[in-house]
Amino acid sequence: MEQLEFWISKGCLVPKPGPEDGKPLPERIFLMRHNLVKVSAGLSGATVKWHAGSANWASLYFAKEWIGAFTGPYTLSYYLSGWFNETIADAVDARDRIDQLIAKSDLHLSSRIYTQSFDPGVRVLPDLLRRTLEEGAAPEEFSIDCSVDEESGRVKVERIGQNSAIARLWGLSPVSTPCLSGTNYDKVTTKGYLEALKTGRPYYDHVYAAMMGRDGEVSWIPYQRIVLPHVEKPGQGKWVSVVSQITPVEIAVV
Length: 254
Fold this sequence. Notes:
It contains six helices and twelve strands. The protein is an alpha+beta fold. Strand 8 and strand 9 form a beta hairpin.
């Protein structure tokens, strides 16, 4: 079965509105401007997509009662200071989650990045992070190296592994979105680097951040990471290796 696409407005199925002035809009703006909910369905599952800031409650109620007619899993894709994507196996649970999100539709997020540190010794880690801890070394192709000036807190990305999380999303450029210095993302995430250097031990945390992709759209990206401190190299100062894996995190943003 090919992918089916439906549009819902004011609680009813409607044809997709045509582009204004013949110019297509980014989907988040299109959904908000027309107060639409989009449902896509195929053999691999169904997706309900909407902008949390638009007047679409009636359409969301329609969608939540309807999605059980489609094969799961069910992905809820909604824009709230960036795209969130949640995949839920069961239609009943997906309906319950839509109810929760409707109740939070006027939520104002106070930050675009949230972090939570954990003791890695008492947690079940994703395979890549577990192997990194067990071996005490970061696999080159899955890690990045950063030099760190502890006095100023300035961090510079020195190397990006070809299969690292950054490379898969933004490529190998050392000046892509997550590598820029002085941003709020930089200030928050580099605290883990300083902590690893201070203690001399691996640092493990969960991160949930709204970040702009190469397509110009902002998405909320959940990932876990291990920061490994390294002995200072002559002429190079202090540095860390970071292994990140995009995976669910224990941070409730919405």
